[in-house]
Design brief:
Layout: H1 2-17, H2 23-30, H3 38-62, H4 81-98, H5 112-135, H6 139-171, E1 177-182, H7 185-196, E2 203-209, E3 220-221, E4 224-228, H8 233-239, E5 244-248, H9 255-265, E6 271-275, E7 286-290, E8 295-299, H10 307-326, H11 328-341, E9 347-353, E10 359-365, H12 400-407, H13 415-421, E11 425-427, H14 434-437, E12 453-455, H15 457-460, H16 468-481, H17 484-500
Parallel strand pairs: 1-2, 1-5, 2-4, 5-6, 11-12
Antiparallel strand pairs: 3-4, 7-8, 9-10
Helix pairs in contact: 1-8, 3-4, 3-6, 4-5, 5-6, 8-9, 10-13, 11-12
Length: 505
């Protein structure tokens, strides 16, 4: 009932405000003729989430724990498996809904969606584990061992597949939320560039409102029409059918203006977003403290020591040990291919700079001729890398086998031994050369505050196709905002980047 009232109210306002639409208004609405997609997308997520939960719970039901323990289940404390299965399935579905894992503002981009799915799942099963221990019913163990990993894997896989589908839709121009930008021209321009040029953002600025005195008939910013000033922002939002309004802070956009705008948007169901000038600061470092008449935005300083770094080091070692065992056949095969097809050692050792500027010998499978370093000066004019990076797409020093293993990053597999030795991490910034570090600016040196990684944002973000500035930005962002779950996502994305071979040469 409430939804229909909002819909009718919004439709009525649109009728009032669009009685005599101007040419810029028609252009704005024509540029973003979007059918509401969020409801149908959430239904798809509910369907696949339910299927994943059912698979995990049903598997645990048939692989009953009491079949694998020597003591019989005590009937006086036992919980019927069918009842327990239903309760866990319902609780799991409820936990996903309660944690807002299908919020349209987080689906389709960034790690928050995956993080919420993971958090809501492990917290539920942590409670189940405590209850199983306190009340001593062994039935719960099977669900911890079978349902949790199987169901969680299905949930994350389903979200990943739907995200790929959503990205394709957004790249084609649909399934994006219309945005009205409010602020000075330069602020609106930055927002338009950031949102409209990135399909994964899920947003598209369709109109702009700027302070009074700056509005001129037929004016636009990067092709987006300016349809009014700050006082008419609420009306413009209804006229262009915006899904949200993004407000950039300025001297003209006062607290009173924002408050009145929120009152205007409330009855028509349009979201209000406040943009900040904070760059490359992730959500976990931001805390909002409400005060008497203002909200205080706290930004935690990045930390590079403590328990989570100890846990990261332990996880790196165990992860590298497991990878060494799993990839042993690949390591042997690649090593034999290098040894049999070109003269020289199988491994190539190169000095790289690690954490706090300490150098170490990084191992790789040799992909070039033995005398490749001697030709470096002669090839300087052919350098295609940006900034301090030296890259040549068709490097004549690379052997035929080296070209193949480079494309699929197989030459970097021996760096697993560097991880075992403690010089590197599984995920981290790109390991730089000493000559690169000698030319680092202060900002770039922040890459050296953590161990370099076998993979990282630079690997999944474009590899050799990245510019020097973008490579630095990604590395510094990782250093200051990394999380263990973020590392897991980077490792998963690395597998896809390696298989595709995109950006490697």
């Amino acid at each position: 009932m409430a939804g229909s009232v909002i819909h009718d109210t919004r439709r009525g306002l649109r009728h009032i405000f669009t009685a005599s639409p101007a040419a810029p208004l028609r252009a704005a609405r024509a540029s973003f003729a979007e059918v509401s997609w969020d409801r149908s997308y959430r239904i798809r997520l509910v369907a696949t989430d339910t299927l994943a939960i059912m698979v995990g719970v049903v598997a645990a039901y048939f692989l009953r724990w009491d079949k694998f323990i020597s003591q019989p289940v005590r009937e006086d404390v036992g919980v019927p498996y069918l009842v327990l299965s239903v309760l866990i399935g319902v609780a799991w579905a409820g936990s996903l809904a309660f944690s807002k894992t299908r919020d349209v503002r987080i689906v389709g981009s960034g790690p928050t969606e995956y993080q919420r799915v993971f958090d809501s799942s492990w917290r539920l099963f942590a409670v189940l584990a405590i209850l199983a221990f306190l009340f001593r019913f062994p039935e719960g163990r099977g669900y911890l061992v079978v349902a949790f990993p199987l169901g969680l894997g299905g949930l994350l896989l389903g979200r990943y597949l739907w995200r790929q589908w959503l990205h394709r839709k957004r790249a084609a121009g649909s399934h994006r939320t219309a945005v009205l930008a409010i602020g000075h021209r330069d602020q609106a321009e930055r927002l338009i560039r950031d949102l409209n040029e990135r399909d994964s953002s899920g947003y598209r600025v369709v109109a702009v409102c700027i302070p009074s005195g700056q509005v001129r008939d037929g004016d636009s910013i990067l092709g987006v029409p300016i349809l009014g000033d700050l006082r008419s922002a609420g009306q413009v939002a209804a006229r262009v059918e915006a899904g949200c309004v993004a407000v950039s802070g300025s001297d003209a956009v006062t607290a009173e203006v924002v408050r009145h705008l929120s009152w205007e948007l409330e009855p028509v169901g349009v979201d209000l977003m406040l943009t900040t000038e904070l760059v490359d600061v992730a959500g976990p470092r931001i805390t909002i403290t409400p005060a008497e008449s203002v909200s205080l935005l706290h930004v935690d300083a990045p930390r590079f020591t403590g328990p989570k770094f100890v846990f990261k080091s332990i996880s790196d070692w165990f992860g590298a040990a497991i990878l060494t065992i799993l990839l042993l056949p690949v390591l042997i095969t690649v090593g034999l291919a290098v040894w049999l097809t070109s003269k020289g050692p199988v491994f190539y050792s190169q000095q790289r700079v690690g954490r706090n500027g300490e150098t170490f010998s990084m191992l790789k499978f040799r992909s070039m001729r033995v005398d490749a370093e001697l030709d470096l000066t002669a090839l300087a004019q052919a350098n295609e890398g940006s900034g301090l990076l030296f890259k040549i797409r068709d490097d004549p020093r690379v052997t035929p086998v080296g070209r193949f293993i480079r494309r699929y990053s197989l030459d970097e597999l021996p760096q697993i031994f560097n991880v075992l030795r403690g010089d590197m991490s599984l995920v981290g910034p790109r390991p730089p050369l000493p000559r690169e570090v000698s030319q680092y600016e202060k900002k770039v040196r922040r890459r050296l505050l953590v161990k370099p990684g076998l993979t990282g944002l630079w690997q999944v973000g474009g590899r050799s196709d990245l510019s020097w500035e973008e490579s630095v930005r990604l590395d510094v962002y990782y250093v200051e905002n990394w999380t263990m779950f973020g590392d897991f996502l980077i490792l998963a994305r690395t597998a896809r980047a390696v298989v595709s071979g995109h950006g490697a040469y």
